[in-house]
Amino acid sequence: MSKASDLFTLKNKNKVEVQFIAKGGQITSIKVPDAAGKMADVVIGYDSVDAALAGDGYFGALCGRYANRVVKGKFSIDGVAYQLDVNNGPNHLHGGLDGFNNRVWEVKAVKIAKFAQAYELSLVSEDGDQNYPGKLKVKVIYGLSDDNEFVIEYAAETSKPTIINLTSHAYFNLKGAGTGTIENHELLINAFRYTPIDGIIGTVTGKIDDVAETAMDFTESKKIGLACNSDDAQVKLVDGIDHNFVINNYDGTIKLAATLVDPTSGRKMEVFTDQPGVQIYTGSHFDGSEIGKLGAPIIKWAGVALETQIFPDSPNKANFPNAVLRPGETYKHTCVYKFSN
Ligand code: BGC
């Protein structure tokens, strides 16, 4: 049985290193080189496992059963209504009060040819857990390749019709955690459209809008600060970016979702996924009151999360992708974070 504080390490031939703990499968560090070979830890978080256990439970964590928001925690399947926890204003966020980020995952090392090292994390979520229907069996692979790809492969099966949307919640700062904000990072998002939010309900309206001529236009690489510091009404609602982008030409195969570059160090991260969406969240709620890596306060915009996913509130939006999983089906999701310089 894994313990919350158990710490696991993945390494490849280039000395890239990923560490995570059993609680929440929380990724606690990812160390990657710049062009001169200088390593930096590019995920924000804490300097010790004890601090990670006591700190923000979403940092680097696996989120579920339904990552992101479900409006008022309500949804129906086959005419049966369910009420989930309401833990974020009027809405349900990241699986509720005791989401998967809070669980101790069972972790074991596995050998998979395409990875230098890999672990399997598994969890059984009982029927009725956080009011979700169906007993859900989840398996997640964390794999590190010699091409500097950190890969997350999710799979899940259910005993009753249910909803599912798993994601990973690491916030990246490619200059290095604790070195300031990501305003200077350049971001490209492979999305001509996004799902705007509503200031009153705090989640998606159900519309799918073009990014063209808005702050959300990252179809060509641009500095994140240009959007975060703009007067765009959507940006103002959340003091930054906290939006789901609709990945172009979604067809269930793996496509580029986004490319993030820190021009100072030259470190680059490409995100690939087979999911229809990616939530870009610039960490607007950090207020510097917590001390993170390098002893630096965790400030607003200290990192950016790129959460591959189904769209927020899909269970209640007929025009959004399907988030229902039925017995006999397997939920599958791949997310690749590929580092270069
Ligand atoms: C959401 C944010 C939320 C954060 C919590 C993100 O995935 O988009 O709105 O504040 O998670 O850590």
Strand content: 35-45%
| Spatial gap, N to C terminus | 38 Å
Low-confidence sequence ranges: none
Average pLDDT for all residues: 97
CATH class: Mainly Beta
Structural class per helix/strand content? mainly beta
Spatial shape: globular
Count of helical stretches: 3
What is the N-to-C order of secondary-structure elements (H for helix, E for strand)? EEEEHEEEEEEEEEEEEEEEEHHEEEEEEE
Number of strands: 27
Reading side by side through the largest sheet, how are the strands ordered?
Answer: 10-11-12-13-27-23-22-17-20
Portion of residues within helices: under 10%
Q: Characterize the largest beta sheet: strand count, sense, and whether it forms a barrel.
A: 9 strands, antiparallel
As for the CATH topology, it is Beta-galactosidase, Chain A, domain 5
CATH architecture: Distorted Sandwich
Q: What is the CA-based Rg, rounded? A: 19 Å
As for the number of domains, it is: 1
Ligand set: beta-D-glucopyranose
